[in-house]
Amino acid sequence: METKNTEIKSNRIIELVDVSKEFDGVSVVENLNLYIRKGEFVTLLGPSGCGKTTTLRMIAGFELPTTGQILLNGKDISHLPPNERPVNTVFQKYALFPHLNVFENVAFGLKLKRVETTYLDRKGNEKKKLAKLPKEVIEEKVRKALEVVDLTGFEKRSISTLSGGQQQRIAIARAIVNEPEILLLDEPLGALDLKMRKEMQLELKAMHKRLGITFIYVTHDQEEALTMSDTVVVMADGSIQQIGTPEMIYNEPKNTFVADFIGESNIFSGVMPHDGLVRFCGKPFTCLDGGFEKDEPVDVVVRPEDVQITTPDKGIMSGRVTSVVFKGIHYQILVQCGKYEIEIQSTTTPEIGEMVGLLVQPDGIHVMKKKFRVNKFSGVITKHNTVEFGDGEFDCDVTQLYPGSHLDEEGYLITAKGEKLDLTDVEVNVEVGLHDITMSDNLDEGGAQGHIISLIYKSEYYRYIVRTENEEDYVLACEDLWNENDLVSLIIPKDKIRLTLKDVKDAEGTKK
Amino acid sequence: MTITKPKLHFSRKLLAIPYAIFLLVFVLVPLLIILYYAFTNGDTGAFTFENFINFFSGTGKQTFFESSRFKTIVQSLFISVMSTLLCLLIAYPVAYIIANCKIKNKTGLLLLFIVPMWVNFVLRINALKELFSWIGIYLKSDTWNIVNTILGMTYDFLPFMILPIYTTITKIDKSYLEAAKDLGATPARAFLKVTLPLSKAGIMSGVSMVFLPAMTNYVISNYMTFNHTKIIGAFIDECFKNDLWNLGSVTALILLTFMFIITGLTGGFNAESETGARGTSLW
């Protein structure tokens, strides 16, 4: 996607370059890089608090980026006020002016518009001036905009007499009547009921085709994003996880977050012995992916509809059916294969308790680089020979920093050569494996504490991210099920903390 | 035979009884008394319109429009209008700034304008008078007397204007302003086209809370001008003190009708704007 072709570049209507936004020191959007092509329907998709609305508001001009640039047709508009941007917004709660009627609401932008017109003064010289749009032009434009949203003849109605869906349409009319280069939509369908929402999704899509304006749409509803967009931008935690077409996002998720957030999925931990072969659930599977190191640990995604049920002798794996739920078009089936639980969507219905064989075709397997293989922190040795990293203090074995060293009675380190070292305030790199951290609800037990902000089921274990008060994240794997938002303390055994001295050269970028 | 005693049910409606009694005794009955005196002859007690005719017919050789009575009415109106305008001019920016400032404890800031009200108002007006006399504008001339009255009224009624305006401004959804800017409005235009019309209810409420008392609160005019500037409230007071009950009642009734019209014109009967605008949370 990083092409320098100028022709393609000129096609970019808006570009965000290294955009970051902080609110009171808390970072909401981090180093966002994104460009959007003219006429595209782009959706920013992510859970609440992922920074998608903030990104939209920065494009609209309601928030200014802390760092970075926003380019519109190649020109920097980062610090332009909203009224000077050729961009219009459809607000989450519509924000229709309650003191104005439908016509006045839709005409609001047009009445403020000044166009350059030429006229002849008394001496017959041509002169230019900024003039208001003539009344007839405004009336005509409003009429057309109302026609687009299918509310012809509603001009005189007051806003309070309109239903939610009608208000929604007026909000869209009010924005598109100004013929913006980009239309921003901030969860515009959030307040509508399901049926209305489905209808509006299709209508918006059709409207986008007809108007040819670039749409930037914000939603947390993955189905909405897949239905409507040309391009989906999946965001989490203030940064972009993946950009792609709906098909790409669904079939080739870049990481476990995207796989888990978009649709249903089975996520496994596996290894790649060589290209085209992946081992997971203790079995080898042929796949189409490659380009990994030999025996590299990977995450594997298998969509429930890609698992086929056969007889036990024909399947690669076999297991017992534990649950069958009718879902309308298909059945949702859970099969326990040893310690792995696999979700399947199928139109065939095995009996509960029946032994079945499972097959996965090579194109049904998607292999991803493991995002978290180990926790990396930079830490500092304290005077008690413990180590502070992340947001806590843990016991550790400092002698591993110097091979053959030992501690004397006063706590000084004696190296193999007999040198006496005081390690207090020495900076170190700390590595802790995912499986080496355990959680406890006794808050005094561990060295750090935080809330569980994410959990992803990976068939044989859950992967948790625990975030401390100071926004430090610990990633860990655990077989037990905890709840999101649980407050836990983290225990790391002394011998599982791997320390290395920090090289001054790579002092930057060691944190995770 | 047993007689079942009706059980007394306590319902929420019963809570309105004390207020209803209060209303009856202290509002309705006095009103009826005023009506009685306004429409009866002082000596005979017979029904008559002559009190109204007397009020508008002037005294001695003067016509009504030359009379001091007319002068009092005009002067009252002028003082009220000016005080209200002055209050509005001061209160709107204050309310706007407090409502939009980023300080967390806005109520604390607002209290700065409310706390003076907790000091007895006669005391405050006296203090203001002393201040004016120290500056040298107290009792300087007839014009200065009117100016001083207006300043006194403004000083005393300012919080009544700030509070309702502040409440309506804080209730305006920020997204309306954003929408206006998004549609191309400069901050100034967004204020004129969105904030100002949406705070109309607060302005109207504030206006009626200042304009009506400013017509009648003669304590302020008397103190500020050593009884030199007479407003309609003072005139009514004089009537009753001098045993002219019928004239006083007629004047009071005319004033009442007048205020009724004003309230109607400023939308004061609109229940929705009323509850939305009054600074109830702070009272």
What this model shows, in words?
The complex is a heterodimer of chains A (512) and B (283). Chain A has 512 residues and is α+β, with helices and mostly antiparallel strands. Chain A folds into three domains: 6-109 and 138-251, P-loop containing nucleotide triphosphate hydrolases (Rossmann fold, 3-Layer(aba) Sandwich); 264-369, Beta Barrel (OB fold (Dihydrolipoamide Acetyltransferase, E2P)), CATH 2.40.50.140; 374-501, Beta Barrel (OB fold (Dihydrolipoamide Acetyltransferase, E2P)). Chain A is globular. By secondary structure, chain B is an all-alpha fold. Chain B has a single domain (63-282), classed as MetI-like fold (Orthogonal Bundle). In chain B, helix 9 (200-216) crosses helix 13. The N and C termini of chain B lie far apart (55 Å). At the A-B interface, strand 6 and helix 3 of A face helix 7 and helix 8 of B.
Topology:
The complex is a heterodimer of chains A (512) and B (283).
Chain A: H1 6-10, E1 12-23, E2 26-37, E3 41-45, H2 52-60, E4 67-72, E5 75-76, E6 87-90, H3 102-112, E7 114-120, E8 126-132, H4 135-148, H5 164-176, E9 182-186, H6 194-211, E10 214-219, H7 222-228, E11 231-236, E12 239-244, H8 246-251, H9 256-261, E13 266-274, E14 277-280, E15 283-286, E16 296-302, E17 307-310, E18 317-326, E19 331-337, E20 340-346, E21 355-360, E22 365-369, E23 374-381, E24 386-389, E25 392-395, E26 406-407, E27 413-414, E28 420-421, E29 427-433, E30 438-440, E31 448-457, E32 462-468, E33 473-478, E34 487-491, E35 498-501
Parallel strand pairs in A: 3-10, 3-11, 6-9, 9-10
Antiparallel strand pairs in A: 1-2, 1-4, 4-5, 7-8, 11-12, 13-14, 13-16, 14-15, 16-22, 17-21, 18-19, 18-21, 19-20, 23-24, 23-29, 24-25, 26-27, 27-28, 29-35, 30-34, 31-32, 31-34, 32-33
Helix pairs in contact in A: 3-4, 3-5, 4-5
Chain B: H1 17-38, H2 50-56, H3 68-100, H4 106-114, H5 121-135, H6 142-171, H7 174-182, H8 187-198, H9 200-216, H10 218-225, H11 232-241, H12 245-265, H13 271-277
